[in-house]
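Late entry, written up from scratch paper. The run itself happened at the end of the previous shift, but nothing got recorded in the book at the time, so transcribing now.
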Amino acid sequence: MNLTSQETMLQIGDTLISLDIIDKKFICDVPKCLGKCCEHGDSGAPLEEGEAAIIKEQYPSIKPYLSETGKKSIEEIGTSTIDSDGDLVTTLINDKECSFTVYEKGIATCGIERAWENGDCSLQKPISCHLYPIRLKKYPTFTAVNYNEWDICKPALLFGEKESLPLYKFLKTPLIRKFGEDWYEELELAAESLEGDKNQLQ
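Output as recorded:
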């Protein structure tokens, strides 16, 4: 692991990680944000090709967990589509919320995850959703791991500051799911080293 000369990115293997992942304090405050990340955005949730294949194949088992409008959207458009940037994403309901969005006590959540929790789907949910507000961008020789700032996540920043929990620790499970235990251990070591350097400068 090493830092770039500008010390704004951390390199672990073939990933370049924004230091915001370490510096930002973050805990999803769902009772306040109401899961609005499932409802808003320029397009659906980014999908990996393998995820899109699983969702399409296992859709009959996911379908019972979805809303009627979600099922109608999927029947018309499909379980995935290509957005204006050429990325593979979930489809949307009337260009608004994700077709897999369901509501529980007014909170938007994921129908795929509900199916997974009951053993009806092998995919927990798209890794892009599990990692949010971290966003991944693949390049020919590396993957960029960045923090995506969004106004609807302000309650999460306040909650994270209150509890003093860094974003990378809040997202430990999905980061390990995506990159593995060894990668995450390197990230932890880098974060501890950077924190030690900060303390020495104070």
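The chain has two domains: 1-26+133-202, 32-130.
(Scratch paper discarded after transcription.)
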